[in-house]
Amino acid sequence: MKLFKFKSIYTKFVVTIVLIMVISSFLSLTIVSSMIIYMLHTPMVDMMKDKAAEIDRLYWEYNIPPDELVKLADTGYLTIEFYEDEALLLESVPEITPEMLDDTENSMDGLLVSSKNMKSDRPPYLISDVADRWVLIKLEIDGDMFRYIAMSLRSVLAISVLLSIGIVLIAVKRIVRPMKRLTAATQKVAVGDFDVRVEYDGVDEMGALVKNFNTMAQELRNIEYLRKDFVSSVSHEFKTPIASIGGFAKILRNDSLEPSAVKEYADIIVSETDRLSKLSSNLLRLSSLENQSIVDRVHAFSLDEQIRRVLVLLEHKWSEKHLELEVALDPVTFNGDEELLQQVWINLIDNAIKFSHESGQLTVKASTVDGEVIVRISDSGDGMDGDTLNRIFEKFYQGDSAHATEGNGLGLSIAKRIIDLHDGMITVNSGVGTGTEFEVRL
Fold it and tell me: Which long-range contacts does 145-154 make (Cβ < 8 Å, 24+ apart)?
């Protein structure tokens, strides 16, 4: 069974803390009261016992009559009464019995009658057997004193509890305030508002919760943007190949086509299908990278060896064009995302191969200068004019229409975004008829 079923966490906090505080305060009051009673009770009893011993000594040493003993032994705090008759004593003090008096005759300290209850109106008193008479020694303290002490303690407790409740109400309200803001923010996220953020400066558990919430909202926003951007880009870029596939598929339905024509149209459909597949993969990768803010798979690896593996991977392409390779790779160890950077080298080297002339030259160099990694990839192609250079990293832009069917204009956008995530820089040096060189600095 749940202890509290309040809907408000603020109420739960307040009730729980107040209950704990009240219970602990009453326990503290009980302990303090017991200590005060003990501190007051023990000296009182010792005083009466000392007075009884003094009376007994004065009587036996100096044979002083009881009336005189009362005058000599009496103080402002004690009242001393002698009783020659046991019956008179029993009548005066009704709470004692003859059996108790019989025990008193055999006791050195006498009979102590006291109450350790602070609410009692009767202070402690002592009955002793002195000079063959019963002596009653009473402490002349008003019983209201005990009640006053108890009332004072209760008043202090009440004031402390009230002040504590006020402080708790203020403190808990401040604690719960960010929770309320977080609740309101989660409601907005639930209806699709991923731009909402919660402000909180603390570094405690609530601060960690708010930080995680803001991160979650940011990631949800990125996912939403990725989805919208992907849908928009796909709908725009897929129109041409889909129309081409649909058109040639309709032509193939003509039974009078020559076998050579059927094969040609089928090859076009296959080519356009491959193009669509690559386009969708690159779009998804680029959208993911654009909505990624940090590189989270960082480790040290050999960058020069990675570039060598990429050259081997693309060997069939540069071999077909009979390109001459100039490779100068210094040993370079780099901390970064190995998988993402491999995509950079694949895109740049593949472009260099694609735009190089037959039997041209492909140059790949890597070095380290003042702690900065510099990679240069150049081809011996036709180069680019100024307008193409200005737009080379735009999505879907293809400056060379002759090679438009070989790509989709996303490779360089992907490469640049990966380099940006590594806090690097990519530049292009090119001119018409002079070839092109890409320089990457990490």
Answer: 146/118, 146/119, 146/120, 147/118, 147/119, 149/36, 149/118, 150/33, 150/118, 150/119, 153/29, 153/32, 153/33, 153/36, 154/29
49 lies in some domain: yes
317 in the same domain as 283: no
Q: What is the pLDDT of residue 376?
A: 92
Are 284 and 303 in the same domain? no
Q: What is the DSSP secondary-structure string of 108-170?
A: SS-EEE----TT-SSPPEEEEEETTEEEEEEE---THHHHHHHHHHHHHHHHHHHHHHHHHHH
Is 70 exceeded by the pLDDT of residue 92? yes
* Model confidence, pTM: 0.42
Q: Are 326 and 364 in contact (CB under 8 A)?
A: yes
Q: Which of 396, 428, 133 is nearest to 239 (CA)?
A: 396
State which residues form the domain around 424.
Answer: 297-441
Query: How does residue 317 score in pLDDT terms, banded at 50, 70 and 90?
Result: confident
Q: What is the pLDDT of residues 248-268, one digit of tens each?
A: 888 888 877 788 888 888 888
In angstroms, the CA 59 to CA 57 distance is 5
> What mean pLDDT do residues 409-430 have?
83
Q: Is residue 138 part of a domain?
A: yes
Confidence of residue 98 (pLDDT cuts 50, 70, 90): confident
> What does the pLDDT look like over 48-81, one tens digit per residue?
777 777 777 777 777 777 667 766 665 666 777 7
Q: Which ranges of 238-299 does DSSP label H, i.e. alpha helix?
A: 239-252, 259-290
State how far the Cα of 18 lies from the Cα of 231, in Å rounded to an integer: 56
Residue whose C-alpha is closest to residue 264's, from 250, 247, 243, 248? 248
In whole angstroms, what separates CA 169 from the centre of its chain?
24
Question: Alpha-carbon dihedral of residues 6, 9, 13, 18, nearest 10 degrees?
Answer: -30
CATH code (residue 315): 3.30.565.10
Question: How far apart (Å, rounded) are the C-alpha atoms in residues 439 and 442?
Answer: 10
Work out how many domains the chain is built from and give that number. Answer: 3
The answer to whether residue 163 is domain-embedded is no
21-35, 100-114, 371-385: which range is least confident on average?
100-114
Q: Are residues 426 and 363 in the same domain?
A: yes
C-beta of residue 332 within 8 angstroms of C-beta of residue 369: no
Q: Residues with Cβ < 8 Å from 322, sequence gap 6 or more?
A: 358, 359
In whole angstroms, give the CA distance from residue 283 to residue 294: 19
* pLDDT at residue 417 is higher than 70: yes
